[in-house]
Protein: tRNA-2-methylthio-N(6)-dimethylallyladenosine synthase
Amino acid sequence: METEAVAAHEPQESAVATKKVFVKTYGCQMNVYDSQRMSDALAADGYTATESIDEADLVLLNTCHIREKAAEKVYSVLGRLRDMKAVRAREGREMMVGVTGCVAQAEGSEILRRSSAVDLVVGPQTYHRLPEVVRKARAGERIVETEYAIEDKFEHLPQPKRADVARRGVTAFLTVQEGCDKFCTFCVVPYTRGSEVSRPVAQIVTEAEKLAGAGVREVTLLGQNVNAWHGEGPDGTEWGLGRLLFRLAEIPGIARLRYTTSHPRDMDDELIAAHRDLEILMPYLHLPVQSGSDRILKAMNRQHQAAEYLKLLERIRSIRPDIAISGDFIVGFPGESDADFDDTMRLVEEVRYASAYSFKYSPRPGTPGAEMDGHVPEDVKDERLQRLQALLTRQQNEFAASLVGKSFQTLIEKRGRQDDQLVGRSPWLQPVIVDESAGGIGDIVNVRITRLGTNSLYGEAA
Ligand code: SAH
Ligand code: SF4
Ligand code: F3S
Structure:
């Protein structure tokens, strides 16, 4: 096609929005951030983002490999895309399909082999090559790009325009660290995201300033091991995440900071002090422990014991009493006995979580856990998961109930489902529904909670 030949040589020209990209995001917040950055990068080549797959010229599946279900889902979606592609071909319309994210990294060319629908496969370390790969794929090549890159994957990509950022809302993710060197024996992340890389301070500050300039009020710093972030500060000394948070707190416009996900081993004194001294650092900490049994923690290679975790939480709570703790749990790791599981239940009872995610262990190819003896039968995993989730749900409800009658600062994020309602966010991440008279989007208002909704709180301006 004539227009395509032009587009290949003059990417800017085609920016007249002849092409649309649909990105479907699976997995964690880092994928959400990456999807946004990929759309930004493709915008320079004339792709506008669309919410409708029917009008897409390019479909990207930004995938997750963390559990078997997540990874297999990709192939059922690819099956549907193959059918869509065939219909499109009969209509003479092109639809390219790309797989990005952690399945792309883990399975590479295997994806091309398993699915004829796929034109390109790009792993998380190689997104800076995405625009080029898409151009090549349009010329008819099927490409797999999963090399580990040394450079910052987004550094050389065009930055989003301020107007585009402004349309996105008042909260934003900002990746500061990527990859993991911890090698928990159940986990694929060190293999799919590579080893730990921290972004430099100046880059993070610039991106945060840009977000603030576009009206973002709340920034969540992301990393697989975000509290392992470190870098050289402008003063020439080595900074940790705590120092970085103090620096970001100076940026005008930013009113709230969060970070996720942390590893218990990397909670250092300065980060804990930030929770005491930085008012804009929200009193919420996602600190996964996975199990309450020392035997299982050891087999998981978590590198700490249950008592150390509890002690750490005690310290954090003593300097920030209103902090809400959230966690992740795996039940049915190989060798987990009833007694080990009881240890997990006891730990949960002791911690009192404000929220938590829990999963059945899913053996992942290439991880040490998959090769271990003593795999737990599925029905035992089911039963344990049910018991754990019942307890965690009860704790979550108790935490929410404890907020009724209390007043706190709420960030108004968007319009509600009902016309006269707005939805805000509590310091502890719960949605807070208020009347539209409470304020405008981006405002931080004092709200008194009047009652509980199913997964939200109802409140009024106080
Ligand atoms: N970096 C984070 C976790 C990233 S993965 C940390 O260190 O905690 C998010 C969660 O998925 C993990 O905390 C774990 O609870 C769960 N998970 C990871 N691998 C899993 C597996 N093979 N089976 C079941 N759950 C898993
Ligand atoms: Fe996975 Fe463990 Fe690294 Fe978290 S710390 S990403 S669970 S290997
Ligand atoms: Fe999934 Fe990769 Fe995130 S495996 S959880 S998308 S780091």
